[in-house]
Amino acid sequence: MPIYKQGPFVSTLLRNEALLWYRANYENWDPSTPLTWQILRTAMREYFAPPNEDRRLQDEWANLKQYGTVFEYVSVLTALAMQIPGLSQIQILDKFIRGLKPKTRIEVELRDPKTPEEAYRLADRFDRIVYGAKSTTFLTQNYNQYSSMSNTSYGEPMQIDTLKPRRFKPKDIQRLRVQGLYFNCQKTRSYCSKLSNQSYNKKD
């Protein structure tokens, strides 16, 4: 679109307060200076954006991490990136990888993707295999247009080797032995045998 047509075209898309703002500021614009989209966009951000909006967006960008599926993470990341001017593809790629779940991040880093789209596909495939995501469809465009997907969030698998055995104090060990109780359930032998027999009879 020619530069001199950008401003008038944008004005046809404005409504309500935005249209009143445009008429008050640009209806008598000097035609010798083209009213470009860049000029309008900067002015609109300064007028309509809440105070400290840039700071808020930067904070959200810095704290953004994957908690659900890759699709949900990409949707939020892409929508946020569109609100922060000047982000390069390298910055988006770096942020995407840094915010992934730990195991997914390692897998993607080992593959060394060169573009955000390539990293999205690698992360999505790994996530579906490891965390069992049901969806087999992954969009590479229009990430902020949500499709009908499960709302289940997939966290890190339980690390069995981090479970610690129960430890008893010496006085507790002595008490259990004197009372003839099992260490695990702290029940008597006769009680456990009774439960076992009841369970066996139900099966019959």
Task: Please tell me about this protein's structure.
The chain has helices at 3-11, 16-26, 37-48, 53-63, 70-81, 89-98, 102-111, 116-131, 170-179, 189-203. The model is unreliable at 135-164 (pLDDT under 50). Helices cover 57% and strands 0% of the residues. It has 3 domains: 3-48, no CATH class; 53-131; 170-203, no CATH class. Helix 7 (102-111) packs across helix 8 (116-131). With 204 residues, it is mainly alpha-helical.
| Largest beta-sheet characterization | none
Tell me the number of strands: 0
End-to-end span in angstroms?
82 Å
Molecular shape: elongated
Mean of pLDDT: 78
Instruction: State the secondary-structure class.
Output: mainly alpha
H/E topology pattern: HHHHHHHHHH
Share of residues in strands: under 5%
How large is the radius of gyration? 30 Å
Low-confidence sequence ranges = 135-164
Features:
single chain, mainly alpha, 3 domains, 10 helices, 57% helix, 204 residues
How would you summarize what this structure contains?
With 204 residues, this protein is mainly alpha-helical. It has helices at residues 3-11, 16-26, 37-48, 53-63, 70-81, 89-98, 102-111, 116-131, 170-179, 189-203.
